[in-house]
Design goal:
One of its GO terms (cellular component) is plasma membrane. Keywords: ATP-binding, Nucleotide-binding, Transport. This is Amino acid/amide ABC transporter ATP-binding protein 1 (HAAT family). With 259 residues, this protein is of the alpha/beta class. It folds into two domains: 182 residues, Rossmann fold, CATH 3.40.50; 54 residues, no CATH class. A hairpin with a 2-residue loop joins strand 1 and strand 2. The protein has ten helices and ten strands. It is 37% helix and 23% strand. The chain binds adenosine-5'-triphosphate (ATP).
């Protein structure tokens, strides 16, 4: 997709709060990222870009490199080659904590919550990580994520759908410029997934950060994303309109294991 067409798509989805305004460097840019694990090349030179108020869906068959890419962006993995830039500043060599303080916030495939702490305390941890520099106080995030009524509940006592929302609230309290959502619908039922979809759009409208989402629920990803990037065997196979992705033969073949 051309940059102009991409901006147009972004603007149309951001319509609830006005168009995305291209200004300076994008929140997130990845250039030529290579990541190897022993004999496996998980990423073979991937570029990625996510703009302010843009939702980018990262899709691809199992083992195509999606989580590895997210881990390289957030600093869980060191990259072998390439660059990760946050608002134009290279952060490739920085540890994950430093990246989080600078605004790369994320959720994980497997929840990483403090189960013995309350909902409020878990979200406060996110706020503390940025020394209270968050855009809003903790109660506002609880309200946005519809967690107010369970603010004082111990997290491990709550149903899984609530726990997923707590993780999202904690990430938001960390003042994201870039929000990385790794399989946020995993383990959710249809009703909870529909609610999550609505919440992701609300977060984009209210927070205005760039959002990168991975999920195996294609209806969720294509429904919520302004643009998708399809990976296969560590390379980008397609990048553009979510509705067009699965009309591309190469993408269909990759999903069917025929490439
Ligand atoms: N820590 C690791 N050590 C060794 N190999 C790894 C490691 N993490 C990922 N890989 C390999 O890198 C490749 C990409 O894996 P990755 O988990 O990023 O794919 P994915 O697209 O997220 O898959 P899925 O959709 O199944 O979660 C795979 O071949 C995988 O086996």
């Amino acid at each position: 997709m051309s940059p102009a067409a991409s901006e147009a798509t972004i603007a149309s989805k951001a319509g609830q709060t006005g168009p995305a305004l291209p200004e300076g460097s994008p929140p997130l840019e990845v250039r030529g990222l290579v990541k190897r694990f022993a004999g496996v090349t998980a990423l073979a030179g991937v570029d990625l870009r996510a703009g302010r108020r843009e939702i980018l869906g990262l899709v691809g068959p199992n083992g195509s490199g999606k989580t590895t890419l997210m881990n390289c962006i957030s600093g869980v993995h060191r990259l072998d080659e390439g660059q990760v830039l946050l608002q134009g500043e290279e952060i490739s060599g920085r540890p994950s904590r430093a990246r989080a303080r600078q605004g790369i916030c994320r959720t994980f495939q497997n929840l990483k919550l403090f189960g013995e702490l309350t909902v409020w305390e878990n979200v406060q941890v996110g706020a503390n990580a940025v020394g209270g520099r968050g855009a809003r106080p903790v109660p506002d995030w609880l309200d946005l994520l519809r967690l107010g009524p369970v603010a004082d509940a111990v997290v491990r006592s709550l149903p899984y759908g609530y726990q997923r929302r707590v993780e999202l609230a904690r990430a938001l309290a960390g003042a994201p410029e870039v929000l990385l959502l790794d399989e946020p619908a995993a383990g959710l039922n249809d009703e909870e997934t529909a609610e999550l979809r609505e919440l992701v759009l609300t977060v984009r409208a209210e927070v205005g950060c760039a959002i990168v989402i991975i999920d195996h629920d294609m209806d969720l990803v294509t429904g919520v994303s302004d643009r998708v990037q399809v990976l296969d065997e560590g390379r980008t196979l397609f990048e553009g309109d979510p509705r067009a992705a699965f009309t591309e033969q190469a993408v269909v073949d990759a999903y069917l294991g025929e490439s």
